[in-house]
Amino acid sequence: MSLLNMLSKQLSDPKVLEQLSKSTGANPDQVKKLAREGLPELMKALQQNAATPEGAKSLDRALEEHQDDKVENVLGFLQNVDTNDGAKMLQHIFSGRNDAVQAQLAQKAGLDKNQASTLMTQLAPLVIGALGNQKKQQGSSSITNLAGGVLGSFFKR
Predict the structure, then answer these.
(1) DSSP character for 157?
(2) Model-level pTM?
(3) CA pair distance 91, 32, nearest whole angstrom
(4) Helical axes 28-50 vs 83-94, angle rounded to 10°
(5) pLDDT digit string, tens, across residues 100-147
(6) CA geometry: angle at 111 spanning 106 and 116, to 5°?
(7) For residues 143 and 50, is the Cβ–Cβ distance under 8 A?
(8) Cβ atoms 51, 147 nearer than 8 A
């Protein structure tokens, strides 16, 4: 099972959903909806960013910085996640579309924008950490290889 599939599965775990619910005041079903919508949005934006030399270089640096994040235990990771770092990641990932993407995700999940933002600032470091781990495991020297493999396979599920 790929690391990204594992993350998707763990984000459906009732304990993980409860942890995320407590951090936002949202109910577990809303959290699950946001994760189901938010993960593909993050992956799509990362893939688009990796398509440009500047974006690929920036993403490569982020993955190297987070390659040793302990994302295998999603619950433990989320209990200590740096949401300030997550907010910065979202600004880079979505660029000028950050507010619009979060508003759209909030609407789809039945959340207010602040709840969606709080959740996304937790999911972004989880995704970047997972991709950093995957890059380290694969020994890929190029983000374009990772983008073509891991990121591309995410959309074939």
Answers:
(1) -
(2) 0.87
(3) 23
(4) 50
(5) 999 999 999 999 999 999 999 999 999 999 889 888 887 765 565 555
(6) 55
(7) yes
(8) yes
